């Protein structure tokens, strides 16, 4: 009988060298993706920016801003072909753990009302909708609201 090694995801700090791969995923999964400037600014600002790789392939990433006892999850994304395989939950678990290590007592995030999959993921982790930001996101026809979610850490 032989053992089968399971692919083990690796969380690592995002680097400027990762940005081409990050942008490829971002552009493929969003109608209004973050720009290179958004990601570069996050790195420059010192936000916790992490990649999630399996066998050296970029599967996902997140950007987390933590300060003054709060954390704001600015972006959490999984490549389309890796969605619905548990990576989103695993990466969110890592972001929550990092926010706790940074001393955050609450985590906040925004999500589009049309992004039902993300809303279900966040609800599974105990996030609760606390507000609506009107006309927050660009959309194909004008603007789209954002639902603000919060999790006590």
Q: Can you characterise this structure?
A:
The protein has about 150 residues and is an alpha+beta fold. The chain is built from 4 helices and 7 strands, in the order E-H-H-E-E-E-H-E-H-E-E. The chain has a 7-stranded mixed sheet with strand order 1-2-3-4-5-7-6, with helices on both faces. The longest helix is centred in the middle third of the chain and has 15 residues, at about 85-100. The radius of gyration is 16 Å and the shape is globular. The model has no long low-confidence stretch (mean pLDDT about 95).
Quick synopsis:
By secondary structure, the chain is α+β, with helices and mostly antiparallel strands. Helix content is 29%, strand content 39%.
List low-pLDDT spans. none
In round numbers, the mean pLDDT is 94
Distance between the termini: 44 Å
Largest sheet: 7 strands, mixed
Q: Order of helices and strands, N to C?
A: EHHEEEHEHEE
Strands, total number: 7
Strand content: 35-45%
Measured on Cα atoms, how large is the radius of gyration?
Answer: 16 Å
Structural class: alpha+beta
> What fraction, in percent, of the residue positions are helical?
25-40%
Strand order of the largest sheet: 1-2-3-4-5-7-6
Question: What is the count of helical runs?
Answer: 4
Q: What sort of overall outline do the alpha carbons produce when their principal axes are compared? A: globular
